[in-house]
Amino acid sequence: MPGYNHYSDCTCGWCQKFSSLRGSYDPTADNARVSLQELGFNGSWSSCFVRPNARCPVCFAAVFYYSNSSGSSVYFDELGWPWPKHPCTDHPKCKATGAVSAQPVRGRKRGEIDEVGGALVAVGTDPKRSFRERYASDPWEPYIVLAIVRLGFDNHLKLESIMAPGDMLHTTFVSAKTTVAVRDLVSAQPGRICVLLPDFSSKVFTARTLAEPEYLSMFDRSDD
Q: pLDDT tens across 47-61, in order?
């Protein structure tokens, strides 16, 4: 996974630098909570790396607004499997304003990620540990679909990380009925991909990572 998707218990170079914030960033807990609110942090793991792009019209919580290729829209509390919908989603007022004008979800810049991380250290909050305790799994990384080649039941995808814009993943999964469209959101872990269905339920498939040359060769095969 890209460096943006690691955390303080990881031993990679980026996360070791992240952990050093414990000594260099020392605001009071109250100031840190204010900073997290101003940064749009909603308590989720993904909001450490992606700024929520909307607010719930019922409770005003920071949420992730998403409209799929079928024209349906939803508020999520977390990006990626298990795609938890915001609790107010079934509220009539929330439904009525589902088409609010919101920016596409985008990854935070490195400096902003460091600000969020430092504030979390100050308040003693670990969103990754909370995710593990709640779902008995490490977080899945959210991606946006940039391109797709479908050959028979094989779905070959080019994905861009939302947490680390510019980081690409080429992957493939097999399904006779389920596919995705360009600009759809999916999430992935090594060997697995989670696809959002039109009703915003989700389905997990076994996936295989492709080298870029292998992925590009699929375009030639699709023309045959």
A: 999 999 988 888 888
